[in-house]
């Protein structure tokens, strides 16, 4: 078994300005992720992270996620490739973020992960996977299907435009 799901570290060992560390899912890891998230296939998943700020009570990691996934369109039932390329700040702290801190000095979203102290050993692989779940759409739809929103009912309806065929006719 690879270390992807069991990648643990002690936060205080990370150094501010430390270069990018990479955690990559390979082979069987991708199969396990696909089963876990009920998607057709994970081609690859890569997390890179670097320590941005470290204080006595918290530590900030800049996390970049890149993944290629095969999803099933919830409307057509056909598979389509879906790419994830996102970055965010992950703050490890014993106290939750205040609303005024949430934006902070970063232009990226900040997520809080509770810890008792920075001397604790944490499983970064599992934590990163939990945040990957937030980046996968709940109801995936292929870019081939048009989205129409019904504001009166507050619903999103996934339907192809029935008049789309008329665009191909010559006048």
Description:
- It is a single chain.
- This protein is of the alpha+beta class and 171 residues long.
- The protein has one domain (8-141).
- It is 16% helix and 40% strand.
- The protein contains 3 helices and 9 strands.
- It has helices at 28-37, 99-103, 124-135; strands at residues 8-10, 21-25, 41-54, 58-72, 79-93, 110-114, 121-123, 147-150, 155-158.
- The strands form 3 sheets. Strands 2-3-4-5-6 form a 5-stranded mixed beta sheet, covered by helices on one side. It has a two-stranded antiparallel sheet with strand order 1-7.
- A hairpin with a 3-residue loop joins strand 3 (41-54) and strand 4 (58-72).
- The protein is elongated.
- The mean pLDDT is 79.
Please provide a brief summary of the model.
By secondary structure, the protein is an alpha+beta fold.
For the biggest sheet, the summary is:
5 strands, mixed
* Rg calc: 20 Å
Proportion of β residues? Answer: 35-45%
Give a count of the beta strands, DSSP E runs of length 2 or more.
9
Helix content: 10-25%
Helical/strand content category: alpha+beta
How far do the termini sit from each other? 62 Å
Mean pLDDT metric: 79
Can you list the strand order of the major beta sheet? 2-3-4-5-6
Number of self-contained structural domains? 1
Low-confidence stretches: none
Silhouette: elongated
How many helices does DSSP assign? 3
Order of helices and strands: EEHEEEHEEHEE
This entry's quaternary arrangement is single chain
List keywords for this structure.
single chain; 171 residues; alpha+beta; five-stranded mixed sheet; two-stranded antiparallel sheet; 3 helices; 9 strands
């Amino acid at each position: 078994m690879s270390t992807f799901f069991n990648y643990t570290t002690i936060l205080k060992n990370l150094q501010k300005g430390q270069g990018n560390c990479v955690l990559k899912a390979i082979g069987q890891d991708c199969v396990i992720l696909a089963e876990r998230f009920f998607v057709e296939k994970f081609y690859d998943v890569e997390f890179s992270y670097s320590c941005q700020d470290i204080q006595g009570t918290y530590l900030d990691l800049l996390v970049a996620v890149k993944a290629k996934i095969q999803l099933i369109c919830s409307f057509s039932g056909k598979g389509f490739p879906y790419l994830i390329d996102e970055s965010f700040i992950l703050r490890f702290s014993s106290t939750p973020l205040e609303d005024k801190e949430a934006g902070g000095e970063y232009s990226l979203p900040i997520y809080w992960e509770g810890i008792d102290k920075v001397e604790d050993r944490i499983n970064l692989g599992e934590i990163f996977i939990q945040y990957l779940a937030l980046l996968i759409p709940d109801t995936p739809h292929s870019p081939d299907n048009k989205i129409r929103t019904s504001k009166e009912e507050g619903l999103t309806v996934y339907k192809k435009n029935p008049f789309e065929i008329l665009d191909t006719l010559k006048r």
